[in-house]
Design goal:
12 helices; single chain; 20 strands; nine-stranded mixed beta sheet; binds flavin-adenine dinucleotide
Length: about 475
């Protein structure tokens, strides 16, 4: 008799379950099942590695009907990995396509090396200094908004050295995992998104920040990030375009394995690949609310040109970026996500020799620079001013002026396009991933400054959690409270 493909793995689970249930405790039994699952998964992946086969998600449960709310880079990556795991997936999005809000024109960096959050011991003094400067890299516009004050206090707590260390470690772990998943996905699908693998060079124009970076670098290396310190001359040798600021450059850090690419192109193309695998995308559909019965979500209420309707599923994933709290609050779930508005300029490169090839982080101005095919993207700064998406000319002009200063003659500033987006920021920049206290409601949101970097790892881990598997990355996922 031929056994179905994963019958062996299922049989392996029976033993520990029986033993555990004889011990009389359902909690012990549950834990034994988890351990057994993990052992089987590790055995299978070791076996596949020995045979030279690509790794494959192991799926132990039945096929679930999953609805993902939001088609940003995080929602689409979740859809991809959930479909790969064998689930029936529908994505609901208010825009006419994927990746049209915060994932549209970000800095383009896959930057594991940029894991130190804004909330660090040096931040409070800097923020105070910048408080009334219109072009400040980090600007809190204090408002009569309880959410903003609550978030701001939590941010201050995350500036404590121990919290910063913990958050940086979390982000490095998830970042390394995510970058590896992105690389595997690229190999598997040949997805094209103006991608470059030339590393990320983080440069400093004041000595104090460079010295601070050296301390952070040690922590990053301890956790496996290949970040090294560079002198000013070494930085210019890696990226000759930085010669323009040779007189003030203090040094840099360099992470060769970091990457860059257009997050919007990636999101659109991954959505197309997912659709080809059977994922349904409902664009132009606004999510209005979730209907709860007892400890479960029964349906999601959506509105489109034809009216309002309820969609039902086995599981629901909230990936609405900065808007996630709005949907969760009526259910009694408070999540510490607040919008951190950022800006970018995108401009065609007119002189390729004067534009950088290596993706850059400019510490002084808190902007990142990526070459995306024939375009240059310069993005960054943060403004805490609620959900306002208006373009502030002063802030855009400041970024444009800095780009002209760094790369004189590389582009025509009159052709620059300005954009703004709302990063879904948690106080410590660590995203919220996993199951909520409502049994069939999951969250994949709050990726702040690193949503593009962390999207694939977060999507894969979320798919594992929904499938009842243990994610293969050391990260504090939401606690399974069901
Ligand atoms: C200036 C700037 C530069 C950045 N640079 C980088 C970088 O270099 N590297 C990096 O890793 N990250 C970067 N980021 C961060 C990154 O862009 C975000 O973390 C990421 O895009 C968040 O993705 P998301 O899918 O969670 O949110 P989003 O992309 O905002 O997706 C959420 C989706 O939900 C939809 N939605 C919301 N409400 C509803 C509703 N009621 N009904 C239906 N649909 C709804 C929205 O339309 C949207 O498509 C940058 C961000 C900014 C602003």
């Amino acid at each position: 008799m031929r056994l179905p493909p994963r019958a062996g793995a299922r049989l392996c689970l029976v033993g520990p379950c029986i033993v555990a249930s004889r011990l009389g405790s359902p909690i012990v039994a549950k834990r034994h099942v988890r351990v057994a699952r993990l052992a089987v998964e590790r055995l299978e992946s070791a076996g596949r590695a020995i045979l030279g086969l690509p790794s494959r998600p192991v799926f132990f449960g039945k096929q679930l009907k999953v609805i993902i709310l939001g088609a940003g880079v995080v929602g689409v990556a979740s859809a991809w990995y959930l479909a790969q795991a064998g689930h029936e997936v529908t994505v609901v999005e208010r825009q006419p396509g994927a990746g049209l809000e915060t994932s549209f024109a970000n800095g383009g960096q896959i930057s594991v090396s940029h894991a130190e959050p804004w909330a660090n011991p040096e931040a409070p003094a800097k923020i105070l200094r910048w408080l009334f400067r219109e072009d400040a890299p980090l600007l809190f516009r204090l408002r009569a908004d309880l959410q903003q004050w609550r978030w701001g206090l939590a941010f201050l707590r995350e500036c404590l050295p121990g919290r910063t260390r913990r958050n940086t470690t979390q982000l490095v772990h998830l970042g390394l995992y995510s970058r590896a998943e992105l690389t595997a996905l690229r190999r598997e699908t040949s997805i094209q998104n103006d991608h470059l693998e030339r590393g990320i060079l983080h440069f400093f124009t004041d000595r104090e920040s460079h010295e601070h970076a050296a301390r952070t670098a040690t922590l990053m290396r301890e956790h496996g990030c290949d970040l090294t310190m560079k002198t000013a001359a070494e930085a210019i040798a890696l990226e000759p375009a930085l010669n323009s600021i040779a007189d003030v450059l203090q040094g840099a850090t360099y992470t060769p394995s970091d990457q860059s690419g257009d997050a919007h192109l990636f999101t659109v193309r991954l959505a197309e690949l997912a659709a080809a695998k059977g994922v349904t995308f409902l664009y132009d559909n606004v999510v209005e609310g979730l209907e709860r019965t007892a400890d479960r979500i029964a349906s999601v209420r959506i509105r489109n040109a034809h009216g309002v309707q309820a969609l039902g599923a086995d599981a629901y994933v909230v990936a609405l970026g900065s808007y996630s709290p709005h949907l969760l609050r009526p259910l009694g779930l408070r999540v510490p996500i607040y919008p951190a508005k950022g800006y970018s300029i995108t401009v065609p490169i007119s002189d390729p020799a004067r534009a950088p090839h290596v993706s850059l982080i400019d510490e002084a101005m808190k902007v990142v620079v990526s070459r995306l095919g024939t375009r240059l993207r310069v993005a960054g700064t943060a403004e805490f001013t609620g959900y306002d998406l208006g373009i502030n000319r002063t802030r855009c002009e400041a970024i444009l002026k800095r780009a002209q200063h760094l790369f004189p003659g590389a582009f025509d500033p009159r052709l620059a396009e300005f954009w703004t987006g709302l990063r879904p920021a948690t106080p410590g920049n660590v995203p919220l991933i996993g199951r909520t206290s409502i049994a069939n409601l999951y969250l994949n949101s709050g990726h702040g400054t690193l949503g593009w970097t962390l999207a694939c790892g977060s999507g894969r881990a979320l798919a594992d959690i929904v499938s009842g598997r243990t994610p293969q990355v050391q990260f504090d996922f939401l606690r399974d409270e069901s």
